[in-house]
Amino acid sequence: MIQAINFKSSRDSDFNAEYDYAPEDVADKIPAELGLENLPEGEKADFMKDFARLYTIKSRADTFGDAEKTHFEKQKNRSGKDVLFLMIEHMKPSDLSLAVSNGQVVLTSVEKMTPDQYQDLAKFCWINNFSEVSFPENADEVFKQKFQQAYENMDNQAVLGYGNREEDKQDLDEVNEKVRKEQETSEESNTDEGKTDEVREQDDKKSSSNNDKKNSELDEIEKRMKTFMEIRSAKKKDSYYFKTHTWGGWLHYRIYESPEQRASDGLWDDKSKSFKSTYEIDLKFKNVNGQLEVRYALPGTKPIPAKYADEIVGIMKSQGYTEIEFENLTDDDKGTFRKSCAAAGVLPTFDLGEKHARGMLATAAENKISDLAAFKRRMARKLRKQVEKSGKTMEDNKGLRSVILECEAENGIVTEGIVWDGTDVAQALKIAQNSLSEEDLYTFKSTLAKTLKAQMDAENNFSNQNPLKKTWERLDNEVAYKPFAEAFDKIQDKIQDISEGTKNTRAKAQDVIGALDTAGELATYFAKYKNRTLREFIDDGKLNLAKEKEDFFKTFASTGWESRKFRDLSADEFVQLYEIMKAENIRLAEKRLENDTRGKSGQDFNMVVSDHVKDASSKLKNVARTLRENGYRDASVIDVGSPVYERLDGAGKNKTQQQSGQTRTIDYARMRQRGGR
Q1: 3-state DSSP assignment of residue 364
Q2: Do 312 and 162 form a contact (C-beta atoms < 8 A)?
Q3: Which helix (H) or strand (E) holds 91?
Q4: What's the pTM value of the predicted model, to 2 decimals?
Q5: How far apart are the first and last CA of the chain?
Q6: What is the CA radius of gyration of the chain?
Q7: What CA–CA distance (Å, rounded) separates 228 from 206?
Q8: pLDDT digit string (tens) for 129-172?
Q9: Could you give the angle at the alpha carbon of 556 between the alpha carbons of 550 and 557, nearest 5°?
């Protein structure tokens, strides 16, 4: 009795792109006895396609030694038309013989087919990627049933995993666009600020660049699998594991715990009335349009062993994937893959609950993955998409909301789409302070202050009863005072230089007092004008000398000073403003000293100078106190020592520094150590 199996090849439409052999590749391999030259011109093209299909099957059987003999024949069908057949004789190990024509596998004497022969038949169809398998109407039911069982045993690829690099790149583009917009709208004008965002996205950019260069070349996977199987797993090829390249483009591994299991795999079990599945795992890899697909199957309902899940994820990661999609996973396998993905710094696309997300973050931290911050950033993006897909708000997903906030804060991202409260602010700031550089932290605080203000604007709630108001004011002041705090340090360095005088001459009191007064005056102006423009500062006459105004316009002409807020000045610009104001304050200090020392003896000058230095230093102490109140706890004040004053008429001249005719060198720098940081 003759039986046939119908099939459809997935490559019927395109030889050049899909078949192992295109028609033109095998033109010189057509046996003369097939009589190609005798065919009418209109039939030659179809004959060449048929031959190319069958030659691909023949070459596989010849290469892997699956059959004793293969050859081509022409046979006439019922209508008398010649049909090309590939004859495959005595397949190993079952001794099955069959013939293949375009779209059909034909067998003879199927009544006594053994389980081994069913297994070889199923393997033949499976390896050659025959799809949409069906049977002629007169097919024997027992034959159909046994073949289908054998075929299912070979093709039980219940789970599909494939990488999603395009999704990674899309996510990265979204983040980079967001960062770009934040840079454009940021109130901070310091040109170095933009560099912090570039550093923050450095890992993702490298990953994207690697994705462009890498592809799922199967030879790289073969090298890795060889190491995994033969070195790390101590499994011998063609005994514990078997590797083939299928017609469908798959790199296929069938793995066993022992050689004995291989011997019984696929045999018919009379007791269970089914074919045995004794393999440990079945793995397949394929490059599909530049994307790596991975399929695996396990006997029955066995869960995937962790070592194989780790290897699958590791292979995907080595190919540049940071996100992997899985289908048809059991709950057990999902749990295994969650751990494997986290340990490699990779995310699965299936949904995660708060518990699972935190578990993955903990696993990633325990494994000390090199890109932990980037992993957390991707986790936040994934969970955000998950919330959006659910149709619910962030407030309806408290657990995921919390994870997103934590992951984003560690990356210097202020969480959007939530209603902030005091607890959120405290938590985000604590995480950011422990994770970010000083510059990144400043940017984070600046954005957070704007976010809180926008929320209060939207709620129209700036009431003192609003708990966020004080939080926002404190944060906004800390952000506003940062460049001034940096300037205060630089200004104090300049005052320190003045107070040290020269090697053998003490500092002039008017210079020290004038410098101290200028620092205090600048702090007063900052507090008053920080949210107002430099135009208002000038119009209010705070620089009342022609020389001061001239220096101001020369220094700030190209800075857009008319619309810039006082708080937008950089630390260096505050120092420049200090220098512009200092000359007038030194002149005023000298005038006060002259008035207070008039008619007094030189000995009394020390008391006058000391009083004026104390008054001026107290202004500096007030500045430091204000800075500490606004978040800069280490702000402190320098000690300017004991400068001296000499009137123009010579009164109060410094006591001679010569004793017994010898010059005594006084190290004033050593005497006046700075009291602050």
Answers
A1: helix
A2: no
A3: strand 82-91
A4: 0.62
A5: 99
A6: 41
A7: 27
A8: 676 677 887 778 888 888 877 776 665 443 445 555 554 445 44
A9: 80
